[in-house]
Amino acid sequence: MGVEVRAHRPTLLVLAGVAVLAVGFLIGALVQPAGQGASHRVPEASSVDVGFAQDMTVHHRQAVQMANTEIGSSDPVVSSLAFDIASTQQVQIGQMQGWLSLWGHPLLPSAGYMGWMAADARTTGDHGGHTPDRSAATITTMPGMATSAELTRLRQATGPARDVLFLQLMLRHHEGGTSMLDHAAQHAREPAVQAFATQLAGSQRAEVLTMTGLLAQRGAQPLPVGG
Known about the structure:
single chain; mainly alpha; 7 helices; about 65% helix; elongated; disordered N terminus
């Protein structure tokens, strides 16, 4: 029975992920900004709201990917943390995609990341003026993202070594997303997006403290955010 469950674990994770994503999508579509109606102007493509939802979807997807690798670890504390991250962030992905669908924007960024954090996008893109050119402000990799080589190492690692690597990569991933969360919490136009970013920033800071402590208990150090 144990072998059979392990053999079907990837399929079960995919099915569970689809179900959780659907729940989040419904939440995003139903939780609309206050005063939304026929006269409500949806966020523009260059807005903080849209850029944040698109980029954070990409950031979250990698976190879910890494967490799913660690679910089932022989370390119950780390396995439980991985499960919490995977399930929570899958719902949040659905919520952000629900907003984007409601607003009529693509679910993922078309080119580059974090251009919505540029000062010109903040001052002109959200208030009915001309649409700013963000191309010069975008980057190709968001802070904290694991490389392909690091993801391969995580999949191939086993035992305590995998637990430590997961904690290091996920800790750096959370720390790397902090600037996006803080910026959206301060500058998003939609109250629902502001509240979402504020809540998420707080919960991820709490998880950062947890993972830092778990690494210390295992005699390991965090990875630098820039490396």
